[in-house]
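Worked example 2:
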Amino acid sequence: MIPIKLLMHINAPKEEVFNALTESDKLSKWYTTIVKGEFKLNEIITFEFINFAEFKFKVIALIHNESVHLEIIESGLDNVGHVMKYELDENNGKTRVRYTYEGFAEMDDSYSNMNYSSAKYLESLRQYCQTGNGEAFGSSSYRA
């Protein structure tokens, strides 16, 4: 398998970044405007991308203020079984985010598209945590 790996720093406390990753009302500000579910181990979270797709994730690992791992269990795309991991730590007064997306067999168009989309949404997370304004899919600030 070929993972997507991204690394970024956010000028915000680790707890704030963790909350942005695990609270539906905050996720709806930087990821997609419709998020349903509660982030607890083995719970199902639904992310709806209006007029595009709906994804259901299972929370497979959750360590407060440190990591979130989500497995795609239902999707309109060919990515069921893929896993997204967010690992957080502190580095020089900022929160370092190590993002890994696992499940690709080759570096094809699907891989390339998800690589770009992952980076775009991580930048939206950074903007949300640093300024209070993200670019969630479906919001007025979303850049298509």
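The chain is about 25% helix and 40% strand. The first helix runs from residue 14 to 22.
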